[in-house]
Amino acid sequence: MKVIMNTIEKPYLLYLGTSDSDLSIKTCRGIAQWRPEFCIGQYYTGSSDLTVGLKQMYPKEAKENGAKTMIIGLANSGGRISKSWIADIIEAIEAGLDIASGLHEKLSDIEEIQTAALKHKRKLHDIRHHKGHLPVGNGKKRSGKRILTIGTDCAVGKMYTALALEKEMKKRGFDADFVATGQTGILIKGEGISIDAVLADFISGAVELLSPDNKPEHWDIIEGQGSLFNPSFAGVSTGLLHGAQSDYLILCHEANRINIKDLEGFKVPNLKECINTNLSLAKLTNPNVKLLGVSLNCRKLNKVEAYKQIEDIENRLSLPCVDPMLTGVSKIVDSII
Amino acid sequence: MKVIMNTIEKPYLLYLGTSDSDLSIKTCRGIAQWRPEFCIGQYYTGSSDLTVGLKQMYPKEAKENGAKTMIIGLANSGGRISKSWIADIIEAIEAGLDIASGLHEKLSDIEEIQTAALKHKRKLHDIRHHKGHLPVGNGKKRSGKRILTIGTDCAVGKMYTALALEKEMKKRGFDADFVATGQTGILIKGEGISIDAVLADFISGAVELLSPDNKPEHWDIIEGQGSLFNPSFAGVSTGLLHGAQSDYLILCHEANRINIKDLEGFKVPNLKECINTNLSLAKLTNPNVKLLGVSLNCRKLNKVEAYKQIEDIENRLSLPCVDPMLTGVSKIVDSII
Lengths: 337, 337
Known about the structure:
2 copies of one chain form a homodimer.
Chain A: E1 12-17, H1 26-34, E2 39-44, H2 59-64, E3 69-72, H3 83-94, E4 98-101, H4 111-119, E5 124-126, E6 145-151, H5 158-171, E7 175-179, H6 183-189, H7 203-210, E8 218-222, H8 234-244, E9 248-254, H9 271-282, E10 290-297, H10 303-317, E11 321-322, H11 330-336
Parallel strand pairs in A: 1-2, 1-3, 3-4, 4-5, 6-8, 6-9, 7-8, 9-10, 10-11
Helix pairs in contact in A: 1-6, 3-4, 7-8
C-alpha cells in the first residue's frame, strides 16, 4: 500500500519562509506541535522573529544533524510557491535534502527546482498531487477498527481531534494510528493521500487504500474532511464516510459558530441533525456505526463558558463531550473501553 | 461558461472501431439515437456487419459532406485507445476532422495522433479530462428551474430519462436543455463536464458551472451519476445533488434489480428510502426540492409485468411512474404543469 502513497523521509527541517505572518506557518506549527521528534530544526530567512520554537539552522547544518527532508509547510493565498523561497529550496537540495510541499503549485513545475533535484538526486514530494493508480471503492468489510472524525463544518478541529485521540490511545497502550487525508495531516504523519484532490470517482477507494485490513485490535483514527452540511465539499465527506467504514464517529464542532465558513446563507446544522445524517449515510458500509462523542472547539470561549457548553452538550446527547485543548480526550477514550 | 467546457464541433462522423462487439459501440448508438441530426455517417473498419444505421463513409467523404468531428464513442475494458484504431484516427485528422474521445486514455498521449493533430491544426477532445480551472461550489441560489435524475444505482437509465424528458418538454414548447455530466451525455450534447473525473473538491462547483443562472422559465434537465446507495460513487452523487440545486428530482430504477451493480453484499435500496435520503440531502441547497416521479427501466420485464410494476409504484408512492422506452415520459411532464 505504501508504495503509491506519499512517503516522506524523516526527520524534517521545517522551512518557515520569508514572510512575517504567523498564519503562514500554521502547518509547520502543527508539525512541530504534534511530531517534535521528527523535527531537527527550523529555517527562517525573513526579517521578523517568527518561530515554531525549534533551533534555527541552515540546510547544511540540518543535514549534518540527520535531517532528510525540508518541509515547505506554508500557507498563502492561491497555494503558489513564492519566488523568494526558490533560492532557499535549491540551497536545501544542494545540501542533500528532499523537499516536501503541501502547496497547490508543484515543486516539479518550477524548472530551477526540478533541475537541482535531478542533479542532486533528491526527491520532490508534491503531497497534494497524488501519483499512481487509485482503486474504485468496493465497500468490502475490512478487519481492524476505525474511528472517523466528522464535522458540522470545515476547520472545526477534525485533524486536531484525530491526533489527540491517537496520542491518548497510544499512551493507554492501544494499537492506534492516525490516518492522514489532508495536507497538514500528511506532513505530520509523513504519508497519506489528500482526499480532496483525488478524482471524484475514487474518493471512497482512496480511503479504503489508506486504511486497509488490519489486526482485529488495531485502530485507525481517520482524519475527516469538510462536512455533509457544507455544500462546497459534502461530496468529499460522503466518500470519506463510505470509504472509512467507521465503527465510531466523533462529531467535531466549533462553539458559537453560526454560519458555514465562507458561504453566505448556510447555517451550521444543529448537532442532533448532523449526527443523524452522518450515521444514516455511514450505515451503508458499516451498519453498526455509532457516535462516540463530541469534540467541541472552544477557542472563542472563556473557560467558564466552555465548560458550561461542554456540560450542556453532554446532557443533551448523553454522550461524552471534550475540547482536546482544554480537557483532553480521555473521556472519549474511556467510552471505547 | 462554454470556454472552459468541452465544446465539440458538429456534425459528427461516428467511428465504430474494428471490433465485432455490439456492446463496444453503445455510446455511438446513443448518439445516433438521440442526435441523428448531428450525424453525417459512420466509419467502421472491422469485418462484421456492425452498424448504428448510418451511411458508411470514409473520413474524406464525411468531411466533404460537412462533418467537423470524428467521434471515438467506443467502450472497452480499461478505456484504452486500441492500436488498431490509430491509423483510422490519423486518416480522419488528415481529412480535416477534429477528434473527440470519451476514453480514459488521452488522444494527446499518443504521439502519432498528437503529431498529426498539430500538423493539420485539428483539435483533440479528451472529454473525460476536463481542462481549465473549476470553481469550488458556493450554493448560491441561481435563477431558472432544474430537474435532476437520481438513481437507486448506476446504469439504471438516468441519462436516457433526462434526454427523453428534454425531448418531450421541447415538443410541448418548454425552454428545456439537457445538461451532460458523463461521457456519453457529453458526446450527445456536444458539451459538458465528466463529473466523475473532476477533483473531489470541485464536484458541486462543476455542476454549478454547467447549470448557471438562466431565464426564470428555463429548465435544465441534469443527467445524474451514480447513487447515494452505491458506496463506490456516492461522493459524486452527493456533490451533484448539492450543485444541481434541483427543483425536482426524478428517481430512476431498474425493475427487478436486487443487488448494487458490481458490488458484493450491497442491496439496491427500496424506493421510499432512496427518495427520502436524496430529498433530505438535496434540501441543503434547495429547501423546496420535490420528487416529480419515478422512471422504471423495464428492459428485463415482459409488457404485462412492466405495466403491473409501474402501476404498483404509482399506487405506493402516489406519483407518476413511467418507462421512457415503453410509456414515454409524458405523465411526468404533465405533473410539472
